[in-house]
Amino acid sequence: MAAQDPVLDQDPVLDQDGVRLTVDDAIATVTLTNPAKRNAQSPALWRALTEAGRRLPGSVRIVVLRAEGKSFSAGLDRQAFTPEGFDGEPSFLDMARGPDAELDATIAEYQEAFTWWRRSDLLTIAAVQGHAIGAGFQLALACDLRVVADDVQFAMRETSLGLVPDLTGTHPLVGLVGYARALEICVTGRYVPAEEAVAGGLANLSVPADQLDDAVRDLASAVLAAPRDAVIETKALLQGALGRDLPAQRAAERAAQGRRLRDLAGLGE
Length: 269
Fold this sequence. Notes:
7-stranded mixed β-sheet, 3-stranded mixed β-sheet, alpha/beta
């Protein structure tokens, strides 16, 4: 299990439904806080994650996503597939019987918990240990960077359950490892260990579990050493690169650099 982060000693901005948000100036930490259930996910947890994104102060430049316990997240809580579902929530079985538009809107709401991590004004880092399965894998994939413990086990198990990954993980997965490897990972549901994750581009760095928080802290410090506007512009450039051809990317680079030069010269708007 990763060492405790001193940021967690601060008063939380949010602490509900298995999610805690703390803020220390430019760094926010979102922690999954239900280790007894291996941080299994539910609609209530997804709403809490969405709320954490809404509550970030404007001073925040980096968001660290971490989890208590031996597992990052074991994925969707299987209670969702029981007839009774979760207290106060429609079961997934009841959702399936409803109109298509309502089902689509509900899944879109769930996806919001996985979407805001990609905001261009933030850089997000997932600190992942142990199992990151299904929705847990997709949550780690929602972040810009992933630092993993050497005991990490990624797996996309939705297909083996008769489902598909629907929490925004397919796009980054294909972008990181390519179509063929992404397809193989999804349809087999196999575990991807730390060494393969780093070699294949799923993770930026692997460290012993007791060094995970320190490694993330070092990475965050390195990011904070660069001017915020330059980081924002660079992230936006790279996020759009795969959707542009070379002439369009060249034009985007020129426009971004023009803005940076004008700002450095004191000529910005």
